[in-house]
Amino acid sequence: MRGHAGAHPAVVAVEAEEVVGYGSLSPYRDRPAYATTVEDSVFVRADRRGLGVGRLLLDELVRLASVHGFHAVIARIVGHNDASIALHRACGFELVGVEREVGRKFGRWLDVVELQRLV
Ligand SMILES: CC(C)(COP(=O)(O)OP(=O)(O)OC[C@H]1O[C@@H](n2cnc3c(N)ncnc32)[C@H](O)[C@@H]1OP(=O)(O)O)[C@@H](O)C(=O)NCCC(=O)NCCS
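Above: the input record for the complex with coenzyme A. Below: its predicted structure, written as tokens.
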């Protein structure tokens, strides 16, 4: 969270004075040519999932990306995380590719699914 400020903010969802989810925008790549693109990240507390919190957070991140003048938002989703893919599709993201077997955990290869939304 500390690394997020200015054009690369973090947002939190609060319910009854408790944080139930958070999201952030990060630089996509270090090189200046990619400065108009950001990568999003969203997390909702396990007992508050499926209630629309993720959608609220991601809609707000896309809105902030637009306000801050970014052109593209990328989501890189590890493994076959159906909830995250469904969330991003619901927020207007389109599948642009799958990086196959680029990660490895507990003896298994991991794919990274990439979705994108232009803002
Ligand atoms: C992915 C995650 C953020 C979704 O948050 P959420 O609050 O449960 O999602 P929402 O309730 O806002 O649902 C948003 C959309 O995704 C769909 N969805 C959510 N969970 C789903 C699931 N398990 N399977 C299928 N669809 C799902 C909903 O139907 C909804 O679509 P709709 O608006 O068209 O009905 C949450 O599951 C999570 O924190 N997972 C662990 C961390 C993670 O994977 N983060 C993503 C890394 S980018």
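Notes for the reader.
Strands lie at 10-15, 18-27, 37-44, 72-78, 94-105, 108-118.
The CA atoms of residues 23 and 42 lie 4 Å apart.
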